[in-house]
Design a protein that fits this description.
Elements lengths: L2 H4 L9 H15 L5 H24 L2 H7 L3 H21 L10 H12 L5 H9 L4 H26 L9 H31 L1 H26 L7 H28 L4 H11 L4 H12 L3 H26 L6 H7 L7
Length: 340
């Protein structure tokens, strides 16, 4: 991958997509969908989620993913960060209720800790920092694939009824709306993969537009239900402070933990960026299915954390890019993970 195509905005970037998300939330606050419009928006949102995961499945190369399993120690380390360390910290944050967080925000923060890792930004930051880019590609892909099953199962275990009524029906909805379209994309990849590569930029807008529709539907429902009256400015500041501590803890744990496990510099960079971040694209559709009317508060911590992780990791990646890089490490960083 060329570093030129993966460069991010300058220090402390404001992601344009985050601005689009904020605008969508504002639109939902001013013009929430209610009555028949809510039914139409809900149906469109369900279809958009299915399309989103179909595209994920159609883009992911099954062969490359299986080859990438050869670097299993790195992938297991990233999965442990994503689905073990993060959830444990999320459970610990329950002790902040009701002094810092409300029960609803605490559930949203815990849900954030259950969401899989990102793919695109993990690759971009790893490339900028001169880390093991192939490993970041495989690690992010495996995390996203595992999250389709692991995230709802963990949510059912640790959130229970407080998370919006988890049940067998909720898990079946996840299978029908997320896993089935993903598997359909994998099966049809042979025929549609070339088209998706050719129209990658246009389909990127489809991805993001689908998520914006999910956000609008979730926040509209929250406005109609009067959920936002339960959150004060002081509580939001408390949530931001807790998320800053959470991000710092995972960045530290993933970096020094990988060093303790004997990984080289390139692998440690991939582990840090893939193991410390959470996917907004995967989390929003899951929250809309699992939380129902409470989805707006459930995704608020994830939206805030997403922008925070971009800003902080951009600074870290640029500093790592200036680190002295021994010749042996530089050669190892360029070897695909699947060749190890």
């Amino acid at each position: 991958m060329s570093r030129r195509t993966l460069q991010l905005p300058s220090w402390l970037p404001i992601d344009p997509y985050i601005l689009a998300l904020i605008s969508t939330v504002a639109l939902a606050a001013l013009l929430p969908a209610g009555g028949g419009a809510a039914d139409i928006a809900g149906g469109a949102s369900t279809g958009a989620v299915a399309l989103l995961f179909f595209l994920y499945g159609a883009r992911l190369s099954t062969r490359e993913s299986m080859d990438g399993l050869r670097h299993w120690r790195l992938h297991l380390t990233v999965l442990a960060c994503t689905f073990v360390a993060f959830p444990l910290l999320g459970l610990a944050s329950k002790g902040l209720v009701p002094f810092v967080l409300t029960p609803q925000l605490a559930n949203g923060l815990l849900f954030l800790c259950l969401v899989p890792s990102t793919i695109q930004s993990s690759i971009a930051f790893t490339s900028i920092a001169r880390g093991n880019v192939p490993a970041a590609i495989c690690a992010g892909s495996f995390s996203s694939l595992a999250g389709i099953v692991v995230t709802p199962v963990l949510a059912a275990l640790v959130l229970g009824s407080s998370g919006g009524g988890f049940s067998a029906d909720s898990l079946l909805k996840i299978v029908a709306q997320l896993l089935v379209p993903f598997l359909a994309g994998q099966l049809l990849r042979r025929w549609v993969g070339g088209f998706l590569v050719k129209h990658k930029k246009v389909l990127g807008y489809v991805d993001r537009g689908s998520i914006l529709l999910v956000v609008y539907t979730a926040f509209s429902e929250g406005m109609v239900q009067g959920i936002w009256g339960q959150v004060s400015f002081v509580r939001l500041l408390g949530l931001l402070a807790v998320e800053a501590v959470l991000l710092a803890a995972m960045l530290t744990l993933s970096w020094y933990g990988a060093k303790r496990l004997g990984f080289g510099r390139g692998d440690r960079i991939a582990i840090q960026f893939a193991g410390s971040k959470k996917s907004l694209a995967a989390g929003l559709p899951m929250a809309s299915v699992l939380f129902g009317a409470q989805a707006s508060l459930a995704v608020l911590p994830l939206m805030l954390f997403h922008q925070m992780q971009l800003m902080v990791c951009a600074v870290i990646a640029k500093r790592r890019s200036r680190d002295p890089l021994p010749e042996v490490e530089e050669t190892a960083a360029q070897v695909p993970a699947m060749a190890r």
